[in-house]
Amino acid sequence: MKVLVAGDFCPQSRVARLFEEENYSYVLDEIKDVIEDSDYSIVNLECPVVRGGESPILKCGPNLSCSEKGIAALKWVGFDSVTLANNHILDYGKEGLVHTLQLCEKYGIDKVGAGVNLSEASTVLYKTIKGKIIAVINCCEHEFSIATKDAAGSNPLNPIQQYYDIKNARTKADFILVIIHGGHEHWQLPSIRMVETYRFFIDCGADAVVNHHQHCFSGYEVYKDKPIFYGLGNFCFDDIKVTEGIWTEGYAVCLNFEEANVSFSIHPYNQCNQAARIHLLNKDAFDLRINKLNSIISNKNDLENEVEMYYDGKEDYYSDIFEPIRNRYYLGAKHRKWFPSLISKKRFLMASDFIRCESHRDFLFHYFRKFK
Q1: pTM for this prediction
Q2: Which CATH superfamily, name and number, covers 2-299?
Q3: Mean pLDDT taken over the chain
């Protein structure tokens, strides 16, 4: 059973215009054979599909969306399923998410990782392929998209809940694939927490773990004979301001599940650089680059050192939110309503995101340790 997993799909800018013209082949033709060669294929839909009248939610960062032509493009290129647990799927509220779910049904594309409430969002996808059952568990780190008991959104990363999901799936499925959306954006290595958590999922009984979100590719490892991929990069995500570098590079992974063994192959590509299309890369040259990341991931001391240096370099960005004026003169004026609060709506949203999102919190722990 060959299952292909690809990273973030969000048709923007040039790609969006080509899709509106139904020119799917220009963008996707070169990767089509790779997708269709698998028995089942999955891609991360990094935005809701909107009609045009939906209202964006209040959040940090951009509110992303695409038109129905984005789903039509996924169907044209051969994807069988979309993961929806990510930080953008609720960007246009419940209305945008429900419309996305309906269009997946219309085009015959399976979906996992989001729903109208937490119960639906956390539902495991079971698929029978070549007489074997695979369970797909999809979750994401906590930002502005998380479902609750009574509200629509994404299935949250919760290792305790995922432990029970994996244990339950083990009684029903031949193979278990966990797909997570998380990590530090624009950085090519996992945090120590990510490594520990994803290995824990293997210890629980998962057969493979795949991550995306960082908008750049990361390395991978084989842990207890099971593969863990720490970042696939963008699959198709056009940004006309970024036409070179790690934003434009990624890979799809084809997992071959055979009895107790899981082998894999990777398919590297450039996406949306000078041309708004996906172009397959020479695998041997790409392997030389990704193996450097793999080497760091495999050595805990090396990875800890890289994480430490990365966090040190981000201190100014994160510390700004904790630097408001605080003295008796300011507080006295504020309490007498002579001076407004320095905690603006934007600052409040940033603070809430830093506190609840696992990857942001990884950095905050590092930052606060410096004040011992």
Answers
A1: 0.92
A2: Metallo-dependent phosphatases (3.60.21.10)
A3: 93
